[in-house]
Amino acid sequence: MKTWFFYGVGLSTVLIGTGAAAHVNWFVQTDAEPLANVAVTDPIFLAWCVLAAGMVAFSVWLDGKLPTPRIVQSKLRHDFMEILRVFTGMSFLLTAYDGALVAPHKLAEGGLGLTLLILQAVIGILLIANRWIKVTAVLMLVLHAGVTWKFGFLPALEYAIVVGIAFFLLFNSFESEVWRDLLKPYSVDVLRIWTGISLVALAVGEKLAPSAMGQVFVAQYQWNFMEALGITIFDDRLFVLSAGMVEAVLGIVLILGTTVRLAVLALSIMMAISNIVFILQGNNEAALVEFIGHMPIIGVALLLLLLGYGQRLRITDLPPVRSLLGGVEEPVPVRPQ
Fold first, then answer.
1. Would 82 be classed as within a structural domain?
2. What pTM value is reported for the model?
3. How far apart, in whole angstroms, are the C-alpha atoms of residue 200 and residue 278?
């Protein structure tokens, strides 16, 4: 009985989270009017906050119970890094070809927009060609700074994953042994943390904020799977709230570095289902747009599935603590990396 209960909870979470995987703003009209979301003082919102906090706490507890996977071969790690580089380059180049910056809905308008568009295309070409990666990584940071200047801090924060990819490539491209030994161990953690920040920002900006377009998207594309299954309590407002909370929890878990592989696996399943749904609906154009936009995320997901939380910076890797009785610092047992 318990097994079926957990299966049901897991399936419901995945179905709800599928709405979190789709980038809402890519597919709704920019002049669309947002529908009223659940207020932060609403008991349903507060209940979801408690549930989300419980999910994060469970992730922290479970992280200490899971076995440590074996270290993968260097060649496999290198191959997955190459996939991230090529996928990011292709996404940048194809998005620039459509006249957009970083994401399909951020149109490159005006002189600054055109300059950033050319910069993005150059970055895409350099990444695909595997040339001047250190310079390219710095240019990615410049591009994101330009996007922040043009569209604002919060909209740009939704694509903080670009910053994470840039630092990951930069930390892994130093030829100096001193710099490489100093920074490379943190490359996966930087990638993971910035990806988590991106997910939390997307959850707020697209689904939880009063100006979010989540309900417009769900109504337009008929994505309320829970209501379609006969669970009428899940109206569009509750579905969008649930999707946003699931996305925020996944982002927080990535930032903390607990149960990273499980979180990324859940995110990957949601992204795959969201793309399949577009195809089943006959909306092949939307499916292609989503796949191109998700290519950097796919590359990051593959790396995090392989390498997990990295070698440093994990919330369950606590530093030495001072004993309450004797005042002597005692090391906290930590699982081997």
1. no
2. 0.82
3. 24
